[in-house]
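QA checklist item 7 of 12: single-chain prediction sanity check.
[x] sequence parsed
[x] length recorded as 342
[x] structure emitted
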Amino acid sequence: MEKALTLLRQLGLLNAELKIQSENDYIHVPLLRGPFAPELKQLRNDLPDVRLSKYEFLERQQKAIRPLDLLSDKLPPHVLASLPHAVDFVGDIAVVEIPPELEPHRSAIGAAIIKAHKRVKTVLSKSSPVNGVYRLRTYETIGGEARTQTVHKEHGCVYHVDLAKAYFSSRLSYEHVRVASLVKENETVVDMFAGIGPFSILTARMHSNIRVYAVDMNPDAYVLLRRNVLANRVTGKVTPILGDIRQVVNERLKGVADRVIMNLPEKAIEFVDVACKALKTEGGVIHYYQFVDTPEPLDTARNRFTEALRQTDRRLIRISETRIVRGIAPFKYQVVVDAEIK
């Protein structure tokens, strides 16, 4: 039983809000979602007796403590409505955005988050937007240990992270596993803006015969990427490369890829031609990401991508999927376009 729970936690499948229940000779464990094919394969390999079935679970009676519950008698009533509802957890670090009206109470908010979430050792407040060529932001410690380094676990992978030196978002967890699940055996993948490696490493872990070139121009991200490749035992499958992607493709990766990942939503539109050069002559798949703040974000992302593609010598076969990855701000979204290219 403990082995099953450990594996489900590593894969990010365990639903902790519902009760594990037993019936006759079976123990029923609630999942957050149905496992992807590679995850199901791993479950069946490690747990030969596992079965998937529908079951009606009971909620856990003891509800989790919320920071709001701890602050309701400590903050003025008129500012309680402004408390941040979204908390990002990266390893044992919690990241929040504090609105101006709550700045005088940031220490109390940090202490409440640590008390409500026992695994959290540090609370960081965002003190700048993501900016610069390395996609970094600055943080202020408002609770716990003053640090930006941690170890984050996601889908059975381990990532050494430094939020101040290299971009990483735990909100992309589903997108990492979605793209990795679409990759086929024997493919060559170019991860154009790899960062510390969440797309590249999970893809390598989920497939036995794969080649991934993980490229980033941030030296600090490259150091963490190499460390994460070693930590996840994907040396030989993932090749970390430090450099500007345009130069790297022209010099080393022209025509090698079956699949290209373009997770640089601020500027990916400027590199569609580079992604096309990286694809094999017969074509392949591009996963294109973009920030969109128009009333029709899906149509806008598709149109912008197809227009950029027209400026190259490639041809669109079809767009297999366009989906909103996450909300960034009111009426602003990160969108992904999955496109098959000839």
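[x] summary fact logged: The chain has three domains: 2-46, 67-147, 169-341.
[ ] second reviewer sign-off
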